[in-house]
Design a protein that fits this description.
By secondary structure, the protein is α/β, with parallel strands linked by helices. Helices cover 47% and strands 16% of the residues. The structure holds acetoacetyl-coenzyme A (CAA). Belongs to the enoyl-CoA hydratase/isomerase family.
Length: 258
């Protein structure tokens, strides 16, 4: 499929989704959100890790498109937020690992896009934040909720109330970003993490992701029940048989995802 504002590239089992509207610092307009949704939907079972990044030199994504938003009515704003929520929920619901490679400004909707990924690596020049209150609105693509879950209420409130931009080092300090890399090494780092993931059983990774996600908002007893079920369900899969057989035969496992 031909896209206007994004690129979706496949390198073996690793797909890279690049938000690519550098003239507007990759701001998310309606079309871009629709293309993100379509791209995520198009991923087949041959893709086992997704990296999300920004095109050009300056930005991951500088937010929702302010020029497009400026004159929205309340009901149009509802629809716009619903589109963003749908696209990011779809991204979040993927069973494969998703890695945000934050290569520059990740503000507003850009920070929210990164937060919808499993984890975030950032370049030294990245700046993150939710500056929406400075525009007289609040984050509208899940930021108030996902940031709170990622860094806790007080930090989330501080960032949302001040609208402050934080650098990559600060983002790492508060647990928003996992690692800070030199700009030129960011994608290579993401790909090397993807390569480590690809050595493991795809069914197990998908199950681990689901159990972590679903368990996070439950009490420990209920959450551990999910883990127990997930653990048991993998027994009898080809991946479980192969993984354990390979260990006992002292050879690398060859997983099929079945
Ligand atoms: N929407 C639309 N256009 C944007 C944009 C955005 N979010 N961010 C940047 N641009 C455009 C600029 O208007 C400019 O376009 P022109 O060249 O046509 O004037 C171009 O991208 C380059 O931007 P700047 O000249 O501003 O670049 P800079 O280096 O001086 O500043 C910046 C960079 C600090 C990121 C600044 O562009 C900025 O503050 N952008 C807006 C950030 C923001 O407020 N994001 C939140 C949006 S609201 C939101 O996301 C709501 C939600 O949760 C759903």
């Amino acid at each position: 499929m031909a896209y206007e504002n994004i690129r979706l590239e496949h390198d073996g089992a690793v797909a890279t989704l690049t938000i690519d509207r550098p003239k507007a610092l990759n701001a998310l307009n309606n079309k871009t959100l629709q293309e993100i949704e379509a791209a995520v939907r198009s991923l087949g079972s041959d893709t086992r890790v997704l990296i999300v990044t920004g095109g050009g030199e300056k930005a991951f994504v500088a937010g929702a498109d302010i020029a497009e938003m400026a004159s929205l009515s309340e009901s149009q704003a509802q629809e716009f937020a619903a589109l963003g929520h749908r696209a990011f929920a779809l991204l979040e619901s993927l069973t494969i690992p998703t890695i945000a490679a934050v290569n520059g400004f990740a503000l507003g909707g850009g920070c929210e896009l990164a937060l919808a990924c499993d984890f975030i690596y950032a370049s030294e020049k990245a700046q993150l934040g939710l500056p929406e209150v400075g525009l007289g609105v609040i984050p509208g693509f899940g930021g108030t909720q996902r940031l709170t879950r990622a860094v806790g209420r007080a930090r989330a409130k501080e960032l949302v109330f001040t609208g402050a931009r934080i650098d990559a080092a600060k983002a790492k300090e508060i647990g928003l970003v996992l690692e800070v890399l030199p700009a030129e090494g960011l994608l290579a780092h993401c790909r090397s993490v993807a390569a480590k993931i690809l050595k493991n059983g795809p069914l197990a990774i998908g199950k681990a992701k689901r159990v972590i996600e679903q368990g996070a908002d439950k009490d420990l007893t209920e959450a551990n029940t999910l883990e127990r079920q997930g653990f048991a369900e993998l027994f009898g899969s080809e991946d479980q048989r192969e993984g354990m057989k390979a260990f006992l035969e002292k050879r690398p496992a060859v997983f099929t995802g079945k």
